[in-house]
Design a protein that fits this description.
single chain, mainly alpha, Substrate Binding Domain Of Dnak, Chain:A, Domain 2, 5 helices
């Protein structure tokens, strides 16, 4: 039987983990003296608020259609932030750095061809 509540909890946990990794990504970019747009920082902060909101409502057994829409929008917002940061990283620090963070963020895993390509570059 399909349990939407458990699935939603899992999705929110994954979003929260991605949020933490994105925050680490921003810290790493700032350590490398790369400016990150205040809009991205604000968007990430808003996502944190929505994550907390979602966790609260899950604990109170509120899993309405509107709630599902919020979770879906939150997922899209996190993906948009991730994409923006990867583009900034590739532009300012190179594709290799961006690929490393892409892997850390779980966007993709390195396949054999990627490892060969990276080894050939560096």
């Amino acid at each position: 039987m399909y349990n939407i509540e458990l699935d939603t909890k899992d999705v929110i946990l994954k979003i929260e983990n991605k949020w933490k990794n994105l925050a680490d990504f921003i810290v790493d970019l700032k350590k490398k003296n790369i400016d990150v747009s205040p809009k991205i920082i604000t968007a990430l902060t808003c996502c944190r608020s929505l994550i907390n909101h979602c966790k609260y409502h899950l604990n109170n057994k509120n899993n309405s259609f509107e709630f599902q829409k919020i979770v879906a929008q939150l997922s899209r917002d996190i993906l948009d932030i991730e994409s923006s940061l990867i583009i900034i990283a590739a532009d300012k620090l190179g594709e290799r750095y961006a690929l490393e963070w892409s892997v850390k963020l779980g966007e993709r895993t390195l396949g054999v061809e990627d490892r060969v390509g990276v080894d050939a570059i560096g």
